[in-house]
Design a protein that fits this description.
The chain is an alpha+beta fold and about 100 residues long. It has helices at about 5-20, 25-35, 40-50, 55-65, 85-100; strands spanning about 40, 70-75, 75-80. It is built from five helices and three strands. Strands 1-3-2 form a three-stranded antiparallel sheet. The chain is elongated and about 50 Å long.
């Protein structure tokens, strides 16, 4: 069965949102730090990256909105963790895009 144009566009929008979230070096470093831990608070990420708390919070918000990082309220702290399945999905989508664009070469 052929995928509908609407479905393909939705998939492309989701992929674009996730790739945009990965387009900043600080967010890549945040993902690396979160991947090395089971989960972290914003404060732990701030201490690791030596960035302002407000800057880290904004980057974490973008990663959460893109679905690459999960957020969980833990009393007075927020806990963040990499969504490994979502990140693997980005990898698979990007691989599929590259393969489809290079298939005619």
């Amino acid at each position: 069965m052929t995928e509908s144009l609407e479905s393909r566009c939705a998939d492309s929008r989701a992929m674009a949102l996730r790739l945009a979230a990965l387009s900043h070096p600080a967010r890549i470093e945040i993902l690396k730090h979160l991947s090395a831990s089971r989960c972290c608070s914003c404060r732990e990420v701030v201490d690791h990256l030596d960035l302002a708390q407000s800057t880290v919070s904004q980057h974490l918000k973008i990663l959460v909105e893109a679905g690459l990082v999960s957020f969980e309220a833990d009393r007075q702290r927020s806990r963040y963790a990499v969504d490994h399945a979502a990140l693997a999905g980005v990898s698979a989508s990007l691989r599929e895009l590259v393969n489809s664009c290079c298939a005619s070469r």
